[in-house]
Amino acid sequence: MSQIxxxxxxxxxxxxxDSIFEDMSFSIDTNWNLGFVGRNGKGKTTFLNLLLGKQExxxxxxxxxxxxxxxxxxxxxxxxxxxxxxLEDLKADCQLWKVVCELGKLRQEEEILFRPFCTxxxxxxxxxxxxxxxxxxxxxxxxxxxxxHLDQESRENVKEYLSSKKGFxxxxxxxxxxxxxxxxxLVLNRQTxxxxxxxxxxxxxxxxRKDQFAKGENEKHLKEIGKLRxxxxxxxxxxxxxxxxxxxxxxxxxxxEHERSLGMRDYIGAKTKxxxxxxxxxxxxxxxxxxxxxxxxxxxxxxxDLKLMPLEHYKSVLVNVRDYSVRYAGREEPVFSGLSFxxxxxxxxxxxxxxxxxxxxxxRVILEKAAGIWDVQKEIVETGICETAxxxxxxxxxxxxxxxxxxISKFCSENKLEESLFCSILRQLDMERVxxxxxxxxxxxxxxxxxxLAASLLMPAHLYVWDEPLNYIDVFSRMxxxxxxxxxxxxxxxxxxxxxxxxxxxTRVVEIN
Length: 513
Prior knowledge:
Elements: E1 3-11, E2 21-29, E3 33-38, H1 44-51, E4 58-63, E5 67-70, H2 76-79, H3 87-90, H4 96-105, H5 122-133, E6 140-144, H6 152-163, E7 168-171, H7 175-181, E8 184-188, E9 193-197, H8 200-245, E10 249-250, E11 253-254, H9 262-293, E12 317-328, E13 336-344, E14 348-352, H10 359-371, E15 380-388, E16 394-397, H11 408-414, H12 419-428, H13 445-458, E17 463-467, H14 475-488, E18 492-495, H15 499-505, E19 508-511
């Protein structure tokens, strides 16, 4: 057991004018299971890279342990080969038998080590890399979002596996995973950093109470400031009134002649000077009050309520799927078969099933049929019924962000979006204004997903179709989106492996086998 000491850490990417970290200091224990939490773009992955020595920085990081990082980078050449052939390329001195043992703990057969890596599912790839990561000894492990793109069963396996381990930093936005696996949290707040014992839920409850206290204190503070300002204004008026009597007139009314005597004017001047001094003292007190309370609300997590503009369709049933099966041309086995469900106005249908069961295929069919571009002579062969209401307007969020390139202005122009409104939604999703001057391909994965979500929210639609919308999205934005969907109750079909989000949002879950 040892400690990692971070002192006065400051880091900024070359050519950028916004600092990722500014004079940051804290310490963590290598025996902890540490959950790393923060908004998208706050620097979680960047910090892991600093621990790995991949970037130069100001300040110091002292650690007596070696680090290893998940996910490993798999080359195109390695993708063609079985993982058993390149284990030592991923982790020095990695032994096959240890990897096999770790795979057993992940409830995975060892045969996946001997199949070409490119043929494996996302869950199988993740399990191999985690098995390699934990096959060593004495390393402090840096685990960056291990459950993205994983189905529910794989997530449960990873959650159970990590909860049995010790000594790692886990970056994740999955609240269930964090609660099950961690015993400390490292939080990148809006302007400060915080280390606390407990899991995510205990930290969030503590933060919620602290935020409520801070808001209450701030309200009292503002009232005190208001009273002081009123007192300053009155004292200023009194001083002005007395100053006016010094020259014999006040509000154009004549003053008694004896009050214009030199002695009386000196007396009034001294009295006025005292009043003016009192005004200045009160002004200084107001400034001290403001400075004392400055920073009280800088870390307050109070997300702005988002808005949605769903359209009203004249039909009550927007999508009808009945005894529907799909297979790819040239293959005998169907992707899925016997699928039946309806999407009625107000429904929020969650498509659920293991990776490769056909969830994205169902979404593709709905999108193409609604757009009138479905062609049964394509590579997909269908049986049964899958029909959409005529004139159906769909707002779509893809799980793929690789198509995003160029500036925000270009993206808005191509998608016929009002740029100022689009940027306003991104700001409400807590994206800093400084990001708007960058090209979208330079955004973090979470920020790219926010671009797609903002575009979808800005588009009035009868039906919202979202395919894994929350991959890489920070936990605070997830809560924000949950609140939005529960408030506006749009008609939706979505795929999302975040169990808590699915339980909160879905009116019905459709299992695809």
